[in-house]
Amino acid sequence: MANIRVIENECVGCEACVDACPFGVVSMSNGIAVIGEGCNMCSACVDACPAGAIVMEKTEQPVQEREEEASGVWVFAEQRGGKIAGVVHELLGEGKKLAQALGQPLAAVLLGSDVSSRVPELAASGADIVYVADHPSLAMFSDDPYADVFARLIREEKPDIVLFGATSTGRSLAPRIAARLKTGLTADCTGLSIDPESRLLLQTRPAFGGNIMATIRCRYRKPQMATVRPKVMKRATPDTSRVAAVRQVWVDVDALRMRVKIDEFIEEAGEVVNLEDADIIVSGGRGLGDPKHFSLIEELARTLGGAVGASRAAVDAGWIPYSHQVGQTGKTVCPKVYIAVGISGAIQHLAGMQSSDIIVAINKNPDAPIFQVATYGIVGDLFQVVPKLTEEFRRAMAE
Amino acid sequence: MKVIVCIKQVPDTTEVKIDPKTNTLIREGVPSIINPFDTYAIEEGIRLKETYGGTVTVISMGPPQVKESLKEAIAMGADDAYLLSDRAFAGSDTLATSYTLASGVRFLGGADLIICGKQAIDGDTAQVGPGIAEELDIPHITYVKKIRQIDNSRIVVERMVEGGIEVASTTLPALITVVKDINQPRLPSLKGIMRAKRTEIRVLGAFDLGVDQTRTGLDGSPTEVIKIFTPEVRAKGEMLDGDVEQQARTLVERLKEARVI
Hints:
The complex is a heterodimer of chains A (399) and B (261). Chain A is built from eleven helices and 22 strands. Chain A is of the alpha/beta class and 399 residues long. Chain A has three domains: 3-57, 2-Layer Sandwich (Alpha-Beta Plaits), CATH 3.30.70; 65-255, Rossmann fold, CATH 3.40.50.620; 280-398, TPP-binding domain (Rossmann fold), CATH 3.40.50. In chain A, a hairpin with a 2-residue loop joins strand 6 (79-80) and strand 7. The radius of gyration of chain A is 24 Å and the shape is globular. Chain A starts with a strand and ends with a helix. Chain B has 261 residues and is an alpha/beta fold. Chain B is built from seven helices and 15 strands. In chain B, the strands form three sheets. Chain B has a nine-stranded mixed β-sheet, with helices on both faces. A two-stranded antiparallel sheet of chain B has the order 2-5. In chain B, helix 2 packs across helix 5 (190-198) and helix 3 (94-107) crosses helix 4 (128-136). The chains are: A alpha/beta (399), B alpha/beta (261). At the A-B interface, helix 5, helix 6, strand 11, strand 13 and strand 14 of A face helix 3, helix 4, strand 9, strand 10 and strand 11 of B.
């Protein structure tokens, strides 16, 4: 069994480990560090200890045979109704860099019905190979048949790395496949790179609502799997002259399970842009004072071609549906521009938006915490500022 | 109907402060709470029991102090609760956690419906629910915002996805993960609190569950954290001066310069 322990007579009592522990379970007793219950064995204290007095004892696991032969960086080409999700192109852009670092091919895995026409755009974004599983039973995403086809393909082809968008689809499918293959999966990554020495995938992700970052690797199992947050990676400039090798995937219909049925898709009324897909988000909070004032937010969002978000306070007050909530118990977004209007910036809200490229805060209270993460801050009355902004943006966009 | 709810105890981030000097989390004295998404899972389990009869059992994996959270679930109205706790479970990643919780469900003789919160607010992975379902070889549906219909063999739910709602159905036994929209969790009643006080939470270890210890804890975790660091502090922002008109114009200019509009 793995263990982490303090070599008591080497502990110098400096408390560096106490400060380093992200879980707050290291304490001092008679000047010697004690690791308490709740230790997650992240080894932050091992790294922090200047005396080398904390050691991690881990059972070395046998490297699975297939590690030697595993090759290929794969991207799940998520689609709905034949339309490839934006994050797929971002993953291909990032996957290309990983594939080049490893000297391996980049492949897209496309499951659906009548989707072969999507191959050229996947090639243009960087795929060297496109695996196509084309069958009517794969028309709508469903975990069972998708996991069956995908996991089987991974077992046969043995890729080194498999990436998914951290969308509602990717975050449902990837853990199912990883559990079936008994391999590692890192959620919601915002940074990926190849360690030049070990040639392993280094996966960096935020935790505790973005307050700490962790770099994670998967040493003994293949493939190395990750879901990647949309809007973080850059898509490559499409090169329409590229051609990908197409590999048709045989779908064993008799073996497919269809335990979950999607009976219907109800589109959210009046939505032009989803929060998840938006480059610009305008969010309203308690400062709006009344649900009818969300029209100000909507108008600014419409002018900018953006989406409408909200703080928890506004959602809990019943001013706007939950699907608009940004933050810890809502959605995590990272658009190019996030405009927070009348939102004070509670830590739970910041958790859902602080990785946005540019943050604009509009609030009448100059001490509101939102200004601490804002790229641009406007202290003022939102009822004056927002209409003025809408007017100015409208003029600027018309030019 | 037999319902099992899986919960996680997490630090209450409303109480977490950042040390301005070291830019690290100050965890001292931060209380532990039931993961907010899991309170919706507990509430939904209790509501199903109230409507259709049956039992609601709550399980969690973690150190002994998690008993407090399990007692809270009983105070809300769960029938009983089990803590899966063993040194052999420490350092579990999502795969090992899924295996251990699934082993707990098996120990309890399975369930018609397993309910989990969408994700935990400390790790934010959302991977354990589907992982448990795969380990038990039952179907799962994530991001459930409403149970439309349920009987002994089938469940129909609304699932929150990008740009709308999917109406999905599956056979039971199944696992669902729920979002905040599904209900409003109740506060524990006085009677519930009294019952929770009297209830002894049973602790199940690796031996009780009969788990394969190469699949639990750090040894059973394919992923390993190799570095933890605090994110770069955002550069100090610019407060826009002048009257409303000037402020608006400056902002438009800045966003134009950044080529985002």
